[in-house]
Amino acid sequence: MKIKHIRVTPIAFKDAPLLNASGIHEPYALRSIIEVESDNGFIGLGESYGDAPVLSVLQAMQESLLGLDPFDLNGLRAQVIQTVARLQPGANPGAELAPGSHPSKQVANAYSAFEVAFLDLQARSIGVPLVDLLGGAVRREVPFSAYLFLKYAEHIQSPYKPDRWGEAISPEQVVAQARTMIEENGFQSIKLKAGTLLGPEHEVACMKALKQAFPGIPLRIDPNGNWSLETSIRMAELLGDDLQYYEDPCPGLEGMAELHRRTGLPLATNMVVTDFDEFRRSIALNSVQIVLADHHYWGGLRNTQILSRMCETFGLGVSMHSNSHLGISLMAMTHVAAAVPNLSYACDTHYPWQEADEEVIKGGKLPIRNGCVAITDAPGLGVELDYDQLAKLNDQYLTCGIRQRDDVRQMQKYDPDWKALKPRF
Where does the record place the catalytic residues (predicted)? Predict the structure, then answer.
């Protein structure tokens, strides 16, 4: 079996005006859809970032992989390394909140994008679900968490009609957002994105309101490193025992280590431990106690399994990070999470935020029931492309005018004096 054709299709889909540490989401999120077709008719699927530096590498890979055996993952890695070295991709202003699109992660990101498609193709060719290639499922349903955001009712300049979620600025509005998300998806834990322009005290008030509204449901807060060490300590005192874990409140491995030393709270990260070198340094400092894996920038599904084993060796918890994605990424996350015995916490996902009519897989959005996504016995990832939807979202990419995520630039449309500060509070 040899690869005869590869297609990389950039897409854009509507993204809500969600507030975060850098500013606010732009009206459209960018992704790349990868198809790897073999000479015996099977097609493996992948999904990755769609920012220009990432897309340039993925598209440059298309010709170099032709004729490769899809089981030759070492050959794939060699081609990725050669391509990245030749292109030397430039900086990406959106990389702070999407570490996989940082230039230092280009090899891991590009390898992951194609590794998922290669594994999907492998599994389809032998008629088994992808999880079987990862050692088999230790669970058939993978738990995910409700992922809440402070947000505006609609984007500035109204590029399309307001989303169905409405404004979420006050604690009462955040509770209402959580209630809807839980009623629709059955989530059994809650995460709030913090570090926004509304400030730490306001975000802690939102957490207190969530605690009162949903007693017994585990809570997490994620300021994306936008609080200073002293602010993080002060907010930890206000939050007390309300937190299941405290995610990236302050910047840096050293800052997180000092925060844990002074508070004793379990700290989680997707920002200060994003590769194996940072993992080694974190262990030496005792910076974090939970690592939020993300196959998109850890170098694929099998590297995610290696990471989980390292976490087990050093007594760390494991969960999964997310940014704006569609169903192919969700199923890749689900298959690898199903094969990780020591998955300690429900995973993150932005999936409920994506519009129902903007999915690229057949049958529309995947169901989340009782807070879980299930794997099936269908070959590979278990999903198929809807080519009409793919064409629609590609057209949207061509016309939306966004080529790299830049939440700072978007916030400056609301406040021209807005600057990227870290930490802000």
Answer: 193, 321
Does 321 participate in catalysis according to the annotation?
yes
Q: Is residue 234 part of a domain?
A: yes
Instruction: Determine if the pTM surpasses 0.85.
Output: yes
Q: What is the mean pLDDT of residues 346-375?
A: 97
The pLDDT value given to residue 87: 87
Q: How many domains does the chain have?
A: 2
User: What's the half-sphere exposure (Cβ side, CA atoms, 13 Å) at 372?
Assistant: 13
Active-site hit among 321, 325, 335, 350:
321
3-state secondary structure of 166: coil
Q: Is the pLDDT of residue 94 over 90?
A: no
Residue among 193, 211, 260, 325 flagged as catalytic:
193
Residues 109 and 202 grouped into a single domain: no
Q: Which domain holds residue 10?
A: 1-129+384-398
64, burial (CB in 10 Å: exposed 0-12, middle 13-18, buried 19+): middle
- Judge whether 413 counts as a catalytic residue: no
Q: Where are the alpha helices (DSSP H) in 11-105?
A: 52-64, 73-87
